[in-house]
Write a structure and sequence with these properties.
Helix content is 52%, strand content 0%. The chain is mainly α. Helix 2 runs antiparallel to helix 7 and helix 3 runs antiparallel to helix 7.
């Protein structure tokens, strides 16, 4: 759990990790869904059409599975906006605003102590260096000197977005009357997410607006996870 070579103590215990990330994202997503829960979220088989009219119009299913949850989507969109604003507008000491690189030797060592940009800075300020993962993948390649936790605080925001997309996939099960429509819903949603991710990452280029980066759990990485 600690990421340390010796036994952990309260002074060097790693606070976040993979399981902690999953639990935190699920916790906040569950609160969002429960607080704004619709009374008819569960399928009521007594109200389903029968006989020749068993297939509901597509517009009705689309409304029931997506648009009637607009309040939930509003909160999710605000979370995404918060991630974007913090990532690209938060001033980080001795680092360019909006930096998303690994620091260290990257870019000829110009941003040596800027590993993770705003995400890394927030973790170091709030959690402290001794409570972060001290063997990130960028350390071996770029010889970084400061710790960076790939399961840090900022990734929780995009993780909630990913978790809620799973909730949306479940909504299609509840409100669709045909299996093929569930499949179409999933395929179309994945194509939209994939195209948005490709556009924002310029086809996966590392110098793009929002690069696909698992360590950062960037927005484009989450979109491609859905794809």
């Amino acid at each position: 759990l600690s990421g340390q070579s010796d036994l952990p103590t309260l002074r060097n215990l790693r606070i976040f990790g993979v399981l902690q990330r999953l639990a935190t994202c699920y916790f906040f997503t569950a609160i969002l869904v429960l607080v704004f829960e619709k009374k008819d979220d569960e399928r009521d088989t007594t109200r389903l059409p029968i006989g020749d009219n068993i297939e509901q119009p597509l517009r009705i299913e689309l409304f029931k599975s997506v648009f009637q949850y607009w309040i939930q989507w509003l909160f999710v969109i605000l979370i995404i906006i918060a991630w974007i604003l913090i990532t690209f507008l938060l001033p980080v000491p001795n680092c360019p605003t909006g930096y998303l690189g690994p620091g260290g030797k990257h870019d000829h060592g110009k941003y040596w102590n800027c590993t993770g940009g705003a995400a890394g800075y927030i973790d170091r300020v709030i959690l402290g260096n001794s409570h972060l993962y001290d063997q990130p993948t960028c350390k071996e390649i770029y010889s970084t000197k400061i710790p960076y936790d790939p399961e840090g605080i900022m990734g929780i925001l995009t993780g909630i977005f990913l978790c809620y997309l799973g909730v949306q996939a479940g909504h299609s099960f509840v409100h669709s009357t045909r299996v093929r429509r569930v499949c179409v819903h999933w395929i179309v949603s994945s194509i939209i997410c994939g195209c948005l991710g490709l556009g924002l990452s310029h086809g996966g280029h590392s110098d793009s607006l929002i690069p696909i980066n698992k360590n950062l759990w960037s927005l484009t990485f989450v979109q491609h996870e859905c794809y």
